[in-house]
Amino acid sequence: MELRISARGLRMAFNRRTIFAGIDFSVGHGETLLVAGRNGSGKSTLVKILCGLLTPTGGKVEMTGKKPLDVHARRGQIGLVAPYLQVYDEFSAMENMRLTMALRGLLSDDGAHRSLLERLALDVRRSDPVRGFSSGMKQRLKYALALSHRPSVLVLDEPMANLDTDGMAIVRTIMEEQHEKGILVVATNDPSDVTAVHTRVDLNDRR
After folding, report:
1. 1 and 63 in contact (C-beta within 8 Å)?
2. DSSP 3-state assignment of 27?
3. 134: which of 60, 85, 89, 184 is 20 to 30 A away, CA to CA?
4. From the centroid of its chain, how far is CA 162?
5. How many of the other CB atoms lie within 10 Å of CB of 186?
6. Per-residue b/e over 109-137, b at no fewer than 16 CB within 10 Å?
7. Which pairing describes strands 199-202 and 31-36: parallel, antiparallel, or unpaired?
8. Which residues contact 199 (CB under 8 A, 6 or more apart)?
9. End-to-end alpha carbon distance in the chain
10. How far is CA 17 from its chain centroid?
């Protein structure tokens, strides 16, 4: 199912302080949306709205296939990687994968999980408690969790956070593939993270 995400007149305010306003865009299959802006401009807030985790003060976000999807169905189409997401330190990488699938109401496939972990250079540590992982390893595990249900929409908030050169190379390949096969949304204060952009939303001075 080919999807399209559209926003019309998005506005967000906290305690009467406007974070951003007047946000409009539309992005579809094979396209990338870049959300740019300095720290504090509202990038993470906009990402959470797109993922159905926050309700905007005004305006509307729609995800449509053959028909509009409700918030629950929208979440099922999205894989999210963000600094504020947590992994379960007391579980292994493989246990985190299985738990994430269970929380989504999906069956686990250990073979597919191992393939993802191998791609993200984590397979040799798949049975180790995550508490012993470096920050970069935890970031790569977040990518494995986000990709485990083969999302149509991949949403990345500061995609290169905590990654070394090898990790960045892996993520760039993932981003290029997602751009070709679905929808990619990237929120970053470093636009050089993204090479191919169809639509850009700049949150600087959008109050």
Report:
1. no
2. strand
3. 184
4. 16
5. 27
6. eeeebbebbebbebbebbeeebeebeebb
7. parallel
8. 25, 26, 27, 31, 32, 33, 34
9. 35
10. 26
User: How many Cα atoms within 13 Å fall on the side-chain side of residue 78?
Assistant: 26
**How many other CB atoms are there within 10 angstroms of residue 40's CB atom?**
10
Closest CA to 144 of 182, 92, 191, 190: 92
Count of CB atoms situated within 10 Å of the CB of 35: 28
Which of 43-47, 62-66, 131-135 is predicted least confidently? 62-66
Q: What is the pLDDT of residues 37-59, one digit of tens each?
A: 998 899 999 999 999 999 999 99
What's the pLDDT tens digit per position in 137-189?
A: 999 999 999 999 999 999 999 999 999 999 999 999 999 999 999 999 999 98
Residues 6+ apart with CB under 8 A from 197: 32, 33, 34, 191
Q: Which is higher by pLDDT, 2 or 22?
A: 22
- Residues 6/26, Cβ–Cβ less than 8 Å: yes
| Residue-by-residue DSSP string for 102-138 | HHTT----HHHHHHHHHHTT-GGGTTSBGGGS-HHHH
